[in-house]
Design goal:
It comes from Pleuronectes platessa. Pfam families: Beta-prop_EML, HELP. This is EML-like first beta-propeller domain-containing protein. Keywords: Repeat, WD repeat. With 341 residues, the protein is mostly beta strands. The chain folds into 2 domains: 204 residues, YVTN repeat-like/Quinoprotein amine dehydrogenase (Methylamine Dehydrogenase, Chain H), CATH 2.130.10.10; 85 residues, no CATH class. The protein contains no helices and 23 strands. A hairpin with a 2-residue loop joins strand 14 and strand 15. The N and C termini lie far apart (168 Å).
Length: 341
């Protein structure tokens, strides 16, 4: 009779390979213990680089897509995707859940950020309104919510010098928020003529209401209040640039001809003179391409004209002409006579 008891062996997660970089940003941090915290699929990973060991947080039931680290660098918040996504705050030492935040976002939690004293947590959802929410995370209580933007939000951060001010950015926008009680009020950034209205991928707040943001084309935008005051062009990567390219060609031609002539002459009462000449001509053309290139980019580019830099063209032609001259002569007949003395 077969044994129907459950097997005594159990599966244990030993190692996770990889890193979730797709559609995620700002999702790897150093902890207070100099370990690295990140996520793969639905697992939070704490990696000890010195001992080459991993610890795992398994509090999520779907893929994690956002991560923020607390100012104490021990606790972290992670947000997941799903129909009813939630946020877990957990301890990177004990690998235990501290708090779970639910029932606000749908589809997923795109961004997370703790404020400077660690008492509040901002989150952004993947719902149609890209809802922005501020939490008293220790009590699991919502302090304020607001419509984030009509398009995707990529990053959110708190002003470390003003506890009621936070900034969000995304597809062709940046917004500056003020939290007052239960009200969360936004003001859109004014690009003006200082920079292009474009997608902003990341943002960092500094003192005196200065904000630094990274744009899609590699520029860094500097803001004071809600106004763009400076653009650092092509700070990262190659900026879109205008350029002019010109290709010129110089050619030299040489030609040689060779003629072979024959003639015949027949002398009769009617004289015929025939002149025949065959000529072979060879032409050789050598062309060299040169290029000039100018660009508004601060970088140096090298280009080559899309043709052979030097090429030679040779042509050969053969021609024959014949000329015939005919002359009529008068023929005299005479009879020799003897000479008498």
């Amino acid at each position: 009779m077969s044994d129907k008891t459950a097997p005594r062996c159990q599966l244990r997660l030993e190692w996770i390979y990889g890193y979730r970089g797709h559609q995620c940003r700002n999702n790897l941090f150093y902890t207070a213990g100099k370990e690295v915290v990140y996520f793969v699929a639905g697992v939070g990973v704490v990696y000890n680089t010195r001992e080459h060991t991993q610890k795992f947080y398994l509090g999520h039931n779907d893929d994690i897509i956002s991560l923020a680290i607390h100012p104490d660098k021990v606790q972290v918040a992670t947000g997941q995707v799903g129909k009813d996504p939630y946020i877990c705050i957990w301890d990177t030492y004990a690998m235990q859940t501290v708090s779970i935040l639910r029932d606000v976002h749908t589809h997923g939690v795109a961004c997370l950020a703790f404020n400077s004293d660690g008492q509040r947590l901002a989150s952004v959802g993947l719902d149609a309104k890209n809802t922005v929410c501020v939490w008293d995370w220790r009590r699991g209580r919502v302090l304020a919510t607001a419509t984030g933007h009509s398009d995707r939000i990529f990053d959110v951060t708190w002003d470390p010098f003003q506890s009621s001010r936070l900034v969000s950015c995304g597809v062709k926008h940046i917004k500056f928020w003020i939290l007052c009680g239960n009200a969360l009020t936004p003001k859109r950034g004014i690009f003006g003529k200082t920079g292009d209205l474009q997608t902003i991928l990341c943002v960092c707040a500094a003192k005196e209401e200065l904000t630094y943001s990274g744009a899609l084309n590699g520029d860094v935008y500097v803001w004071r209040g809600v106004t763009l005051i400076r653009t650092v062009q092509a700070a990262h990567g190659v900026r879109h640039h205008t350029s002019t390219s010109t290709c010129t060609s110089t050619s030299t031609c040489t030609s040689t001809s060779t003629c072979t002539c024959t003639s015949t002459f027949t002398f009769t009462c009617t004289s015929t003179f025939t002149f025949t000449c065959t000529c072979t001509s060879t032409s050789t053309s050598t062309s060299t391409l040169t290029s000039t290139f100018t660009s508004t980019s601060p970088f140096t580019f090298y280009i080559t004209c899309h043709a052979l830099p030097t090429f030679t063209f040779t042509s050969t032609s053969t021609s024959t002409f014949t000329t015939t001259f005919t002359s009529n002569f008068t023929c005299f007949s005479f009879t020799p006579r003897s000479i008498q003395t």
